[in-house]
Write a structure and sequence with these properties.
517 residues; alpha/beta; FAD/NAD(P)-binding domain; 5-stranded parallel beta sheet; 4-stranded parallel beta sheet; 24 strands; globular; binds flavin-adenine dinucleotide; binds 1,4-dihydronicotinamide adenine dinucleotide; NDH-2; NDH2-like_C; transit peptide; FAD
Length: 517
């Protein structure tokens, strides 16, 4: 028999056992989660007598609401032209192929199939909300259409979570010549165009000026979208493009154009300076105080404010133009605003009260970028608003059920034949009243800011994190590791987390793919 280890080494043996058991436990839990994801349980149809709750959109706000909502309490109908949820924080990485777009998409069908009671989904755009008639007109805008592609969906309760569209401020040529960065299709389009510019610049006998223009990548808007994209694009050039196509080395250039004096206005001064100095190291040019006024197919014209305050119009040639100047109101939302007198002073979206009810409308709520609350239009805000509404609707359903019970109990009490029966019903009524008070305790929506994070290229990120009652500002490689782990853990599903992690490993091992599809 093996000799017994000395007493002082026994703790090592216990340490190994504990590690092994934890490993087995975690693997088992993961295997169970994957199994459960692939094998949803049977669903049941909700009672048709229950209220119809229509949810518009499948973005951050609507999906957070659906995650929290007990669907057995309502007849839930979801309408969105997108039959998936998109994890937008990693979308800039899709423009260079660091992450494949399907890795950050979660099919709405998977999400809905895991709810207890069935939820109807229509892949369509809401074209009009008729508040008086309480119907939403919907239209199937996909390539394949059946005999019916326009219809109406009636609602008792409506949640508007349609997000926002890209702001262009009516500047001529923006829609025709630039790429936006909001949807999966935009990221695919940019990826294709980067390679198209590079290959066209390499075309036989191309003039030096044309090569320079084609390889000039201009990003308009120094908010987080523009900054993250510029950082990703420069990484693509440094890590891959210049290795495989060394001829572009001297002419490939990224320029970020911003109307304000600095980029990332929502971050602290220290992080703005850090971002600007990192961009300088990376050789990304920042053109601050430069407001684009006109866009053509080959150049932009911008009004530049000089240090002495004078203004000058400058022409900047480009090969690729990415437009990231923030949000604008969607037409369907604008139309509803025009129907409601209480919204006549709203400009940037639907004004809502502290319970996210649209001002001037009964039983209509708005979440995320289409609603104007006191907070920035971010995924963080939209997610918390959606989760709040989920809890609110669950509470409302519970309250209604208890109130119904209370009514039948008080009927029973008045018909009770003996004092004993009456006392018993009285106790039950007291208990239900206590429950009612507890459920009705839900307060107004309160946003809890966790902080802001942005990737700035060169494996560096900036973060303004809320900590206890203060703020921590940090930037650099450690922040980048934090950025990666934070977003990996926030991905919608285990499947998304695996795919994103694989994409990162794949790009580290083999580089990004430079083929144009
Ligand atoms: P969205 O998520 O945009 O969803 C809107 C939904 O409505 C979509 O499903 C859309 O298809 C659907 N829809 C549109 N029109 C209609 C219609 N007519 N009828 C029915 N449905 C319709 N925020 C952060 O907090 N952190 C980040 O790191 C971050 N990174 C970002 C990176 C990029 C590139 C972008 C573009 C945004 C980023 N944001 C980030 C902002 C964040 O994505 C938005 O604030 C958030 O998506 C808003 O959520 P939402 O539900 O209001 O709208
Ligand atoms: P934004 O509104 O934050 O920034 C747009 C920028 O474009 C502004 O700085 C503005 O001055 C500039 N601009 C406008 N018109 C211009 C013109 N004609 N010429 C030059 N510059 C012009 O927009 P963005 O970056 O699209 O973000 C939208 C929302 O999404 C924001 O609320 C943002 O916080 C959020 N978001 C958050 C991210 C993060 O937390 N990492 C990443 C991406 C977006």
């Amino acid at each position: 028999p093996a000799p017994k280890p000395k007493k002082r080494f026994r703790f090592l043996r216990w340490g190994w056992r504990l590690t092994w058991l934890t490993g087995v436990g975690l693997t088992g839990a993961l295997a169970f989660e994957i199994y459960a994801q692939r094998h949803p349980e049977e669903q049941f149809e909700p009672d048709p007598e229950k209220k119809t709750l229509v949810i518009l959109g499948t973005g951050w706000g609507s999906i957070s609401l659906l995650k929290k909502l007990d669907t057995e309490n309502y007849n839930v109908v979801v309408v969105s032209p997108r039959n998936y949820f998109l994890f937008t924080p990693l979308l800039p990485s899709c423009t260079t192929g660091l992450i494949e777009h399907r890795s950050i998409m979660e099919p709405i069908r998977n999400i809905l199939r895991h709810k207890k009671a069935t939820v109807k989904f229509y892949e369509a755009e809401a074209t009009k909300i008729d508040y008086e008639k309480r119907v939403v007109s919907i239209s199937d805008d996909s390539e394949i259409k059946g005999d019916i592609s326009h219809t109406e969906v009636p609602f008792d309760m409506l949640v508007i979570g349609v997000g926002a569209e890209n702001a262009t401020f009516g500047i001529k040529g923006v829609r025709e010549h630039s790429c936006f960065l909001k949807e999966v299709g935009d990221a695919q389009n940019i990826r294709k165009r980067i390679m198209d510019c590079v290959e066209t610049a390499m075309f036989k006998d191309q003039t030096p000026e044309e090569v320079k223009r084609l390889l000039h990548m201009v990003v308009v808007g120094g908010g987080p979208t523009g900054v993250e994209f510029a950082g990703e694009l420069q990484d693509f050039f440094n890590d891959d493009l210049k290795k495989w196509i060394p001829e572009i080395k001297d002419n490939f250039h990224v320029t970020l154009v911003e109307a304000l004096p600095n980029v990332l206005p929502m971050f602290s001064k220290q992080l703005i300076d850090y971002t600007e100095s990192t961009f300088k190291e990376e050789e990304i040019s920042i053109r601050a105080k430069t407001m684009v006024k006109n866009v053509t197919d080959k150049y932009i014209q911008a009004e530049v404010t000089k240090p002495d305050g004078s203004k000058e119009i400058e022409t900047i040639p480009y090969g690729l133009l990415v437009w990231a100047t923030g949000n604008a109101v969607r037409p369907v939302v604008r139309d509803l605003m025009n129907q409601l007198p209480a919204q006549k002073n709203s400009r940037r979206g639907l004004a809502v009260n502290e319970y996210l009810v649209v001002n001037g409308a009964d039983n209509v709520w708005a979440v995320g970028d289409c609603a104007i609350s006191n907070y920035a239009p971010t995924a963080q805000v939209a997610g918390q608003e959606g989760a709040f509404l989920g809890r609110l609707f669950n509470t409302m359903a519970k309250t209604e059920a208890i109130e119904k019970e209370l009514k039948s109990l008080s009927d029973a009490q008045s018909q009770a034949k003996s004092d004993d029966d009456r006392n018993q019903v009285f106790d039950e009524i007291r208990e239900r009243q206590r429950q009612l008070r507890r459920t009705k305790q839900i307060g107004p929506f309160q946003y809890s800011h966790q902080g802001s994070l942005a990737y700035i290229g060169k494996e560096r990120a900036v973060a303004d994190i809320s900590w206890l009652s203060g703020n921590i500002a940090s930037g650099g490689t450690m922040t980048y590791l934090f950025w990666r782990s934070a977003y990996l853990s926030m991905c919608f599903s285990t499947r998304n987390r695996f795919l994103v992690a694989f994409d990162w490993i794949k790009a580290k091992l083999f580089g990004r793919d430079v083929s144009r599809e």
